[in-house]
Amino acid sequence: MKRSLGVCYYPEHWPEAQWHDDAARMVASGLTWVRIGEFAWSRLEPDPGKLEFDWLDRAIDVLGDAGLQVVLGTPTATPPRWMLDRHPDMLAVDADGRPRKFGSRRHYCFSHRGYLAECKRIVALLAERYGRNPHVAAWQTDNEYGCHDTILSYSDAARMAFRDWLAQRYQSLDALNRAWGNVFWSMEYAGFDEIDLPNLTVTEPNPAHVMDFRRFASDQVVAFNRAQVDILRRHTSAPIAHNYMGRETGFDHYAVAADLDIASWDSYPIGFLSDRLEASDDHKAAFLRQGDPDFQAFHHDLYRAVGRGRWWVMEQQPGPVNWAPYNPAPLPGMVRLWTWEAFAHGAETVCYFRWRQAPFGQEQMHAGLLRPDSAPAPGLAEAEAVARELADSPQAQAAPADVALVFDYASAWAWDTQPQGADFDYVRLCFAWYRALRRLGLNIDIIAPDTADLSRWRVVLAPGLFTLSDSLRAALPSCQGAVVFGPRANSRLPDFSIPSDLGPSLPGLDCRVARVESLPPGSTVGLESGGHFVHWAEDLDTRAEVVLARANGQPAMVRADGLHYLAGWPDDDTLFAVLRDLCHAQGLATMDLPPALRTRSDGRTRFWFNHGSQTITWQGTDLPPCAVLQQVQR
Amino acid sequence: MKRSLGVCYYPEHWPEAQWHDDAARMVASGLTWVRIGEFAWSRLEPDPGKLEFDWLDRAIDVLGDAGLQVVLGTPTATPPRWMLDRHPDMLAVDADGRPRKFGSRRHYCFSHRGYLAECKRIVALLAERYGRNPHVAAWQTDNEYGCHDTILSYSDAARMAFRDWLAQRYQSLDALNRAWGNVFWSMEYAGFDEIDLPNLTVTEPNPAHVMDFRRFASDQVVAFNRAQVDILRRHTSAPIAHNYMGRETGFDHYAVAADLDIASWDSYPIGFLSDRLEASDDHKAAFLRQGDPDFQAFHHDLYRAVGRGRWWVMEQQPGPVNWAPYNPAPLPGMVRLWTWEAFAHGAETVCYFRWRQAPFGQEQMHAGLLRPDSAPAPGLAEAEAVARELADSPQAQAAPADVALVFDYASAWAWDTQPQGADFDYVRLCFAWYRALRRLGLNIDIIAPDTADLSRWRVVLAPGLFTLSDSLRAALPSCQGAVVFGPRANSRLPDFSIPSDLGPSLPGLDCRVARVESLPPGSTVGLESGGHFVHWAEDLDTRAEVVLARANGQPAMVRADGLHYLAGWPDDDTLFAVLRDLCHAQGLATMDLPPALRTRSDGRTRFWFNHGSQTITWQGTDLPPCAVLQQVQR
Amino acid sequence: MKRSLGVCYYPEHWPEAQWHDDAARMVASGLTWVRIGEFAWSRLEPDPGKLEFDWLDRAIDVLGDAGLQVVLGTPTATPPRWMLDRHPDMLAVDADGRPRKFGSRRHYCFSHRGYLAECKRIVALLAERYGRNPHVAAWQTDNEYGCHDTILSYSDAARMAFRDWLAQRYQSLDALNRAWGNVFWSMEYAGFDEIDLPNLTVTEPNPAHVMDFRRFASDQVVAFNRAQVDILRRHTSAPIAHNYMGRETGFDHYAVAADLDIASWDSYPIGFLSDRLEASDDHKAAFLRQGDPDFQAFHHDLYRAVGRGRWWVMEQQPGPVNWAPYNPAPLPGMVRLWTWEAFAHGAETVCYFRWRQAPFGQEQMHAGLLRPDSAPAPGLAEAEAVARELADSPQAQAAPADVALVFDYASAWAWDTQPQGADFDYVRLCFAWYRALRRLGLNIDIIAPDTADLSRWRVVLAPGLFTLSDSLRAALPSCQGAVVFGPRANSRLPDFSIPSDLGPSLPGLDCRVARVESLPPGSTVGLESGGHFVHWAEDLDTRAEVVLARANGQPAMVRADGLHYLAGWPDDDTLFAVLRDLCHAQGLATMDLPPALRTRSDGRTRFWFNHGSQTITWQGTDLPPCAVLQQVQR
Ligand SMILES: [Zn+2]
Ligand SMILES: [Zn+2]
Ligand SMILES: [Zn+2]
To answer: Which residue intervals define the domain Glycoside hydrolase family 42 N-terminal in the entry (chains A, B, C) (predicted)?
Structure first.
């Protein structure tokens, strides 16, 4: 696979006279892809039905003729103002019952049929016109589903659609009432049209009600995206992508991606460090201008799974952004490092966001590769350096991983619905496990919760898995190594109820969760090893082999052959030690990397990344701050 | 009085086939009471007017025939979904103007006449059917009035009812305008129908307006409860109770209780420690799995007053709960300790909540005496231990107290309406005084603000009392010992205005509050004794005897004969010393108990409770963690 | 100029029989002004059209005949309840879409035409009746525009008015769409009636949209005030004032003041310290009972500019207030200190709020000069002391300042709209510069952003100025000394877009802001001098002389002749050193005052103020706590 670079560009923001120069500079910088069009609806259809595609024809031509391949976005994330007149009820409604108004973006409810029809109309027009355009080499649907908390809507449209969805799912009220346990607190329904959305209840709503609402909301995104894809497929054979976000779990990305060819995501390491990562103040200060050393990699590995191997970074942070609480600039070298790390994890293409900083609009303080005055911003030289380095690099190849981590969107919904401890969060849990594996210097595959064959991995990890799918259960014997289920794993039936045997119900493992505790910050459960459980601890009824015990002798981790159950949330060092020992038992070599040093190998080249602001000496080699080192392995 | 144990049970949650076994196990465990029915409306009346009481007939029979006495709850805290179709405007509305929707519980406005009529109808049906049932030995009205912040509603129904209430109270607009001081900021009304509820005003509403709204809201609860009691009385002679909550001050519990026979409350020590107690992080960590050592006792003593001597714990935490921010498990022994402490404070009956943990619904993570798989949870053995111990125990007898603490719901409303310092809270103030008395090892009576005879107590304390009632004023001479009024006591007229002599206007005590200060955390007023006033300090005009002075010589506490006024909020150690000296002057013996050790005596038996996780040696005796020690005194 | 004292009085709150005594006591205390009437609408017009002015006639007579000069307020901040029946849609609406209801004050939307007409009617009635009354020596319009966050309203009236305002401003949609950059995210409008207010958008609205809404909202206040002034002018020649608030930047005070004769403000040092000042806990604790030593002075100097030289303190805190989170009492001497500091900064008159503490209403816990029982509160003696001292004092004279600080309301709106760093605040920035100048012991003039002549000052400072006005640009050569533009200065065009040359575009200074960073607390950019930039740092493209550099050698402050640009937010000590060196270079003598000591000179008398609770020895003189020292200089 040939790796490549690209950039996001908004021809509609600039005088047409500038397009040629821009295209030429892109090509001269070594970029080969340009993404356009995803926010341009008001320019494509300034009035309802009045289409103005000529400028886009010309823009594609200018870019394509310069040698760039175009990713064309469908503009459905930004319906024009006139759309509101046609569909006044198309707006999403927030959990407080307030409509989320026009004036920024993503101002639509996924359940609104009228807006969906408009989207199909504009996508069809674009597909017909550009589906065979030789410059249009890929498509993007919409933009960042879920960004700005836009998956859940409490609108009338959503209410109606939810009732239909429930009727389809349960067929009878009786089935629904039983599944939800509605006898509790007299919550039984006599008609599907009696069921409301689970907001503004006096105290917390039934978790089963919420869980179905989360499933429904995810399905609405899948359907919205599929409607676009179905149309595009009729007119184009170019690959279709969507650009996902960081730490967005509002919908099942695997399900959306099943209809797409490429997964891509928008990687803003510095912004994400500040606004969506649990970490100490010291950690955040240490990585202020670099981003967290594992957060990007986690998403790279996740979206590689989501994309079934094909994935891009569609938007790569090139400098300071505008949307985080504080917006420092990347250390020199970090734009290059981020780009290479994406390639090390298997990205086909990394596109920077954006070409030239806009002097107007909400993102006027968001850096581009160019400044608003068209002078190069610091990120440009780093992108150009990567472009030169890519030219000398071998083709990318698939990178084997010995360890797999299951990531499941339904689990994120479930524990968000019922955290039981205020700081219990599924992503946080999985990320803690991921970080421990990274510290061990391992390649990691993230895998879907319905993975049917585990034979490729020596170690498979499934912390916090809401329910064990039939397919994953069936696949367990295929794993020749160790499988670890973690706290809360398979603790619920799909309807959210507690299984009659209490879980985790793992085949061949005599282990039952008798009781759970959530623990406030500072309170822990001591382990024999000297470490602790934090956040969460479980009492087990078990006669299985105890491989980790509490200080008081209670079992903390048990196993039967390769199948393990870990009955709590270990502190980071303990988790590291547990996973290290497990890997060693499987014959895997591990490291103990310092926090800023990370590595990945594709089997031929081992990449080293120093995310720190100080030089690290590792195995006799000095890695300066922000360094990328490629070691040929064979 | 014979002490007894019971449990809360939901036959409608389980297959009828299981009822017999459950009943038999309850009896075998030593339980003699079972509370049922309080959330079962949707099963009693699945459609409007379609009554299905047969299953309840059978449940009562099964339980009763097994030897259990039934407490039957009216199901009015959980109106079924069809009720909303009949009374769409019955929902309460929150202070932001949002209806509080169906989907959990307590989804009604106390002021809605249509819903009140429905409640009277279902209560009458139950009373007629079960009023003479020999197994139904007690009744409970509704469930946890006020839980989930449900006393104040800003609905149309509440607005109309409030206007009527004001018209009744004031008879004329002129009287209301004068009482509220509406000339201030041109707030005068020309008609009762011009008066709105005091929410969403531009800046704070008139405190007199808010105070009347609080009084009105309390009266609505009293009327709602009385309507049920009046019906029940016509059909049954069994005692009637309501189950109150912890730290719930939204309505006047004395007034509700005046219509009832028994006060009961729902005691969740671990949940309450975490979600409704001001305490340091260290304190909360020390008592994480035990609950605060004084919080339960405070409510036991309060509800003994509310119940005019007859009181129960209707729901006792048996294990981890689901609703606090974090939900750890009780230390082994605490379920027993909590139960015995309730008995030591005079409880007739302690019922655990609940028999078997539900695998569905909002409380699926709330422990029961049984696990969801019917295996015993750890709490069951402790309940059984208490049952055995009870069998060998003498009858309970009334326990004399030498000290009384006035607790007044109107004062809670008043200082909530006008805290003047952001952390001034009436319950917090009273609880600080209560804790100091507990540290002194004293039996304490909590008494109502209209208590007419004080002759039983050597020391009577009234911190923060909004207004001095005529009856309490008249009773002052009946106290042969010391009376202490604390900061803010009698500082207002009933209409919320400042009295013309500024207060506290205590008979025979030359003392006037010239000025008050509220103090932020960390700022204090030094006392001559070396201690400090925190939160609150008052400048006095006084020629009375000074018994405590500020470091600068100003009077901090004055007295005339036995009548004292304390002009600030002392730190805990100072308050302890002040109350100790006062007790000694009255000839009362005191202790200085460590924080985890508490005691109460009923005159014949002295109970000792170690709420700590370490052994305490006290007077030569070792009390292990969570120990209960009973010393026969005569 | 003769300095004088006054007091705010509410005759409608007290029996008429008391008025004579009150007036006599005011005069005996040395007060010469009394402000009345500003909340009395419900007493002037109890029913629509039913006028009752007789009591006000008599009150003015009683006060005037006693020798007091009356300031008469228009009562438009508190429309009576009946007004709502006439204009149900007159209420403001908050950003969440909730009407801000009757029941306190300021319950009106500035854009409501019906209410504006009512205001004009009542003002005309007052003006006709009292415009020539010899006792009415000044007028006040409304009360505290903007208090309780009342400038921005999201009502229908505001929406309609905003559209009209935009149509006037832009004339065409095309112009508006271009100015706002609405091509970004397809936000283009096809009609002015499509434009909504910028609240409740899915993510942040276009900053250009918000900025125009802020301008519009300010203009609405100006128009509202002007409507009253125009009427008053027709009937009176007495001066007209408005009483502004502390740290209120919701509207352009210069623009409102252009129609008025006197600026006045309401100074509550202790309340403001607690609720509207960024400062460390230690600082707040040190000045708990004194208020911040610079906060009042900053506003004195600001409102001197706003009033074009004529300014008052209309409400001076006389004791504890009721509205801050905590409300301690002033140290003895502070009421006198505050009063004298106002005079030192050029106040004509200081009025205390209020005469007698009200026993009812929202402010019943707000101290007056008298207690509710008419006994003197501690503040009265201090006011009387000032009155005696004034009698012996020379006339005030204009005080020259060598240093000017530009303060611009539009900049406050701009950086509130787009802080880019969560703690970037324009007032905070200007106040940091002001505090450094105060520490230098300098007299300071605050000046408007369109000041046309800078020749009076040796040093002119403009941190954070949104745009450089044409007039200020033209005035730059008139400054014979140093001019410093600070971070973010002139970084935007008036339409909010980034200028094509990136700014600051200062004449003759080769300096361009290439990139900016916002920094979280604890993260800094080191300077060569050892200090740091905090909050904000800018990368410059410059070939100008570097007068301050980063530790890494990058320019941090550059200059060309007297024109400087400071590319960051220095820590306090660094800012002090930078400004000190700048002053020295201009031949100005400076001090380095301790935090509690402040000074101002009017050229003849140098005033010293010890804001601390400890004695300060300065230049051989002991200043006790709260001392005021007047040194005759010539
Ligand atoms: Zn072409
Ligand atoms: Zn029977
Ligand atoms: Zn006169």
So the answer is: 8-391
**3-class DSSP state of B89:** coil
Residues 331-390 on B with a CB inside 8 Å of A are 357-365, 367, 371-373, 375, 377-378
Q: Where in chain B is the domain with CATH 3.20.20.80?
A: 4-151+220-391
The whole-angstrom separation of Cα B453 and Cα B450 is 9
| B490-530 pLDDT per residue, tens | 999 999 999 999 999 999 999 999 999 999 999 999 999 99
Contact between C546 and C540 under an 8 Å Cβ cutoff? The reply is no
The hierarchical CATH code for the domain B403-585 is 3.40.50.880
ipTM of the shown complex: 0.97
CB of C526 within 8 Å of a chain A CB? The answer is no
Closest-CA distance, C125 to chain B, in angstroms, reads: 18
All residues of chain A having their beta carbon less than 8 Å from the beta carbon of residue C552 are none
What is the bridge-based pairing of β-strands B563-566 and A240-244? unpaired
Compute the distance between CA of residue A283 and CA of residue A204 in angstroms, rounded to an integer. 34
* Polymer length of chain C: 634
What is the C-alpha separation between A442 and C302, in angstroms, rounded?
A: 62
Using DSSP bridges, classify how beta strands A262-267 and A240-244 pair: parallel, antiparallel or unpaired.
parallel
- Taking the centre of ligand 2 as the mean of its atom positions, its distance from the CA of residue B353, in whole angstroms, is 24
Give percent above pLDDT 90 in chain B: 97
Residue indicated by tokens 């103007």 = B97
A185 is in an annotated binding site: no
In CATH terms, the superfamily for domain B4-151+220-391 is: Glycosidases (3.20.20.80)
Q: How far apart are CA B536 and CA B520, in angstroms?
A: 9
d(CA A32, CA A3): 10
For the stretch A267-302, pLDDT in tens is 999 999 999 999 999 999 999 999 999 999 999 999
Start-end of CATH 3.20.20.80 domains in chain C: 4-151+222-391
Kindly report the CATH class assigned to A4-150+220-391. Answer: alpha beta
The residues of A assigned a catalytic role are: 144, 315
Q: How far apart are CA B10 and CA A184, in angstroms?
A: 9
- Residue from A154, A159, A166, A203 to probe the interface with B (highest B Cβ count within 10 Å): A203
| Coil, strand or helix at C250 | coil
Question: A255 near A222, Cβ under 8 Å?
Answer: yes
Mutation pick from C101, C105, C326 vs chain B, by most beta carbons of B within 10 Å, is C326
To the question of whether residue A109 is assigned a binding role by annotation, the answer is yes
CATH number, domain C4-151+222-391:
3.20.20.80
**A490 marked ligand binding residue:** no
Catalytic residue among B144, B248, B384, B538: B144
User: Residue by residue, what is the 3-state secondary structure of A112-170?
Assistant: CHHHHHHHHHHHHHHHHHHCCCCCEEEEECCCCCCCCCCCCCCCHHHHHHHHHHHHHHH
Q: A93 to chain C: nearest residue by CA?
A: C202
Confirm if A332 and A318 have CB atoms less than 8 A apart: no
Q: For B149, phi and psi rounded to 5 degrees? A: 55, 50
- Rounded CA-CA distance B247/B431 in Å is 10
